[in-house]
Specification:
By secondary structure, this protein is of the alpha/beta class. 43% of the residues lie in helices and 16% in strands. The chain is built from 14 helices and eleven strands. An eleven-stranded mixed sheet has the order 3-2-1-4-11-10-5-6-9-7-8, sandwiched between helices.
Amino acid sequence: MVSRRLALAAGDPNGIGPEIALKALAALPAGERARITLFGPRSVLERTASQLGLHALLTELRMIGAGELPAEAACPGQLHAAAGASAVASATAAIEACRRGEVDAVVACPHHETAIHQAGIAFSGYPSLVARVCGVPEDSVFLMLVGGGLRIVHATLHESVRTALDRLTPELVTNAVRAGARACALLGAGDPSIAVFGINPHASEGGLFGPEDAAIVEPAVRALRAEGLRIDGPQGADMLLAQRKHDLYVAMLHDQGHIPIKLLAPQAASALSIGAEVLLSSVGHGSAMDIAGRGIADAGAVLRTIALLSGIRQEERTS
């Protein structure tokens, strides 16, 4: 059963977020559903519930209106600045509720970054929003993907490789590792074994492929090992993943972490924003504008994310 009180934010209202939020809630037993508060534009949620034959469900839900969408902007499958602003507003309301102690964690349905940028909102994923709402530096909140038997935290995220390389420092890497270790403990993996990927292929092969690993990652690993963490690296991401013997992996760049997770758990991963006082997890897939409004979206990733933040492994739910 859902043991924590959760907020569920609807995501981009023109994407599949409202649909998979309602489908997930409908799939839960009433007692579990009662511990979840749904945040999003009421008009969109009501319309979606009617389309899915779930209108009666709305009378059972604890729902808080947020990010109301103008009628002219409500068009499933269409990018719209107002929809981007709505996704941010509903997630912000959920995060603020968590900060007030009204819920214990936040599940956020998928957003669309282009729509958010069209709204003029600075945004590089939910970690940046969590940082902003919690009033902490953005580089202190990190993304950790969970899926396919892997947990991978990212030192850098949605930025060009050039920008990421310029931002990578020993301090940033140590902060990412510490945040990942704390998140593992919250998820039931205390004292995790940790593997740190190199920046360059083969972790620079002793300097053959560049000085970055010796200058950035190696000092971070030495400092963390001195703190008592069980940590290996830097080594090539391919080799470490092939071994599959660690509880937590630390990627230096977006694709190092995203590719293995999405290969092993397509459309099924959870994406946690870690490092701030609020624990937020979104699903590891996008807003699927191509199927929005058709009633065919799969809510499995939302259910897995709810289970993850509730301290329940998905296999326990389905066994």
